[in-house]
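My current task is to audit a protein record that another person submitted. I need someone to confirm that the token line plausibly describes how this chain folds. Take the sequence as given and treat only the tokens as open to question. This is what I was given:
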Amino acid sequence: MSPDMPAEPGAERPVLLLFRRPPHGTVFPAEGLRMAEALLAFQIPVKAVFLEDGVFNLVKGQGKGTLGFGDLGAAFAGLVANGIKELLVLQEDLADRRVRIEDLVDAQLRAIRVTELRALMDEAKVVMPF
């Protein structure tokens, strides 16, 4: 399959956003959120995966951090209403950090394994880490 060809006929290959950093102490998660919103505004397919310390972005009830950002988890959950089918979370990283999927925001969430992440990366048109 050519890099410019869709994964399936009639489908545009998605942009894969990888959220690897925690919600506070850096601007990366907030900038990734803005990127997701911009891509969705132009009807570009987006998949969002939360891995490593990025899983903490989805923990319920977070307040403002040192940079003054609000509850990013609620904002990420709002992406589902704006066109992302589901938010994906790396199962191994949840377990490593003793976070249960029940601790995460109320949204369309699905835990995936690293093998599925590899397949998503192969399928994506662009992979952008945040």
